Amino acid sequence: MGCAAPNPMHWQDLLSVSPRAVEVGFLNARYRVDPVARSIAELQPDPQRVLTQSFQVLLIRYLTSSGGELTGEEITEKDLPGGVTFFQGPHALPVAPVAERFGSDPEAFLSRGRKLGGEPVHHGDAAVRFWPFKQIPVTYVLWMADEEFPASVSVLFDRSIERWFEADMTFLLVGETTARIVED
User: Fold this and answer.
1) What distance in Å separates the CA atoms of residue 184 and residue 35, rounded to the nearest whole number?
2) 86-108, pLDDT tens digit by residue?
3) Which domains are delineated in the chain?
4) CA–CA separation, 65 vs 43, rounded Å?
5) For residue 44, what are the β-bridge partners?
6) Buried b (16+ CB within 10 A) or exposed e, 161-179
7) Pair type for strands 126-133 and 119-121
8) Cα gap 172→175, rounded to integer Å
9) Residue 58: pLDDT above 80?
10) Cα–Cα distance measured from residue 171 to residue 165, given in angstroms and rounded to the nearest whole number
11) What is the pLDDT of residue 119?
12) 152: which strand partners?
């Protein structure tokens, strides 16, 4: 069930690439995207979920991107074109809620990651490689709090993210992934 709809230009872009309804996954959920009806609905696990406009735009932009093969090179947001200037202040990656919720419980973080289809990897104190979209890995690295520093989270991307999304969509991707990680 959607709330605000994406801009008509987004739908037109999608219609030119895919004139039929398609299903797409995001983490452990499935969505039906219908460019003719201009609608997006979650099929599972929560058909009643209210989809934000930004999430709907993210799905459409994913479906209209050319993407590419994984490179195997992990990078941070600062390594992306324009990343050093874009990903700061209000555009710092929105990962603080993950640190707040799991900063002292890495096992709970790993468990939540598995529930969302993620796989534990060896980084930091605990790390999970999520697959928000089937060709786009996003790794959340949890650093537990200690006497000197509060808990924190960093994010790693496969360099191929550059072919999928510009900085603004990468920001939305992390925001939506974070929201799903911390939701109850």
Assistant:
1) 31
2) 999 999 999 999 999 999 999 99
3) 8-64 (no CATH), 74-182 (3.30.310)
4) 23
5) 30
6) bbebbebebbbbbbbbbbe
7) antiparallel
8) 5
9) yes
10) 9
11) 97
12) 143
